[in-house]
Write a sequence for this structure.
C-alpha cells in the first residue's frame, strides 16, 4: 500500500512539514508529459510538476498513473487539457526563490471525467 512518504520522500521531517503547510490548490493546464511519477503541466504562464500517486480510480476501475496519460486508455494524453486538484506546500523559501511541492489527488479531463488518487486516507476540503 502506498503512503504519503513514498510520494514526497522517506524523511519524516519533510512529510511533517509538507502536511503542516499544505493547502488545497488547483492546477489547470495542458499535459506535457508524465515522467518519473510527475505530471508536467503547461499552465500558460509556466510549467508545474505535480507528484502523482501510483494508482487512480476511474469509474469502477483502478489504473496506474502511467495508464491515465497513455493515449490508448483515453483518459488524457500530452497536448490535452486537465484540471488537477492537489495539496501544495511551501517546503523552502528565501528572498531569491521558493520550492513548493504539489501532490495530486483528483484529476478531471477535458470531457469532465474524474480520476481519484488511491490513498490510505481521504482528503476532505474544509468548508
Amino acid at each position: 500500500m502506498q503512503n504519503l512518504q513514498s510520494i514526497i520522500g522517506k524523511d519524516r521531517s519533510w512529510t511533517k512539514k509538507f502536511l503542516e503547510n499544505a493547502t488545497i490548490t488547483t492546477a489547470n493546464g495542458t499535459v506535457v508529459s508524465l515522467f518519473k511519477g510527475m505530471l508536467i503541466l503547461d499552465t500558460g504562464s509556466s510549467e508545474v510538476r505535480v507528484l502523482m500517486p501510483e494508482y487512480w480510480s476511474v469509474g469502477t476501475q483502478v489504473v496506474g498513473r502511467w495508464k491515465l496519460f497513455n493515449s490508448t486508455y483515453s483518459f488524457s494524453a500530452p497536448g490535452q487539457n486537465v484540471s488537477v486538484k492537489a495539496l501544495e506546500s511551501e517546503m523552502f523559501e528565501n528572498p531569491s526563490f521558493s520550492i513548493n511541492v504539489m501532490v495530486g489527488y483528483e484529476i478531471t479531463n477535458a470531457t469532465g471525467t474524474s480520476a481519484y488518487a488511491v490513498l490510505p486516507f481521504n482528503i476532505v476540503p474544509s468548508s
In short: The chain has one domain: 4-117.
